[in-house]
Write a structure and sequence with these properties.
about 200 residues, alpha+beta, OB fold (Dihydrolipoamide Acetyltransferase, E2P), seven-stranded mixed sheet, 4 helices
């Protein structure tokens, strides 16, 4: 019985019988790869030190992740301050990986509620993209020393650094009170003239 098994196994491993078994194995592996999310292999060089990138990168801003999607690789970011590059709106989407059921070896993942110093790049569609090859890093107090003198608020920002822009609320209110006061005085004067005549 033991000899028969040995001969049977030897027969399966012979060149003529290995090819169909190998082909079946490869077909099963290919099917398994198609059934799982696609992984695009990518690699990148080590980015420059953060202090160098903060002075040379095309786009640099500080922001906090408000929401994430696409398996946490896409982030809705509230921009707090723009350090380099074009003006940014107060809220942007940063894509840390491809859309859909795709993935790469360099995808970046974001945590909701976490503040980052972002070093994204413009993608082909004109949006903001990021990956683990950039200098994007979670905010820490020591990064404040890299803040450039010409750092600016994002477009459409309505709050000052310490809270609401009080001048932006009080000025229109003051104008409304002044106009209302002038109209009231004019109305009283006009009313007084009608009673005296």
């Amino acid at each position: 019985m033991g000899v028969w098994r040995h001969d049977r196994v030897s027969g399966l491993l012979s060149t003529g019988r290995r090819r169909p078994a190998l082909a079946s194995l490869l077909a099963a592996a290919g099917f398994a790869l198609l059934a799982t999310p696609s992984a695009v292999l990518a690699d990148c060089m080590m980015p420059p030190p953060v202090q160098d990138a903060a002075k040379t990168a095309d786009i640099v801003f500080v922001g906090t992740v408000a929401e994430s999607s696409n398996h946490n690789s896409w982030a809705s970011v509230v921009v707090e301050e723009v350090w380099r590059g074009p003006d940014q709106p107060a809220a942007v989407i940063v894509k840390g990986g491809p859309a859909g059921n795709m993935a790469t070896s360099v995808d970046r993942f974001f945590e909701v509620g976490v503040k980052y110093l972002f070093f994204p790049y413009a993608d082909e569609a004109g949006g903001l993209a990021d990956n683990s090859c950039t200098n994007t890093v979670q905010w820490s107090a020591d990064l404040a020393q890299l803040r450039p003198a010409d750092a600016r608020q994002p477009l459409g920002a309505t709050e000052a650094e310490g809270g609401y822009d009080v001048g932006g609320v009080i000025a229109p209110l003051g104008v409304a009170v002044l106009v209302g006061g002038v109209l009231l005085v004019a109305g009283l004067l006009a009313r007084g003239r009608t009673f005296t005549s």
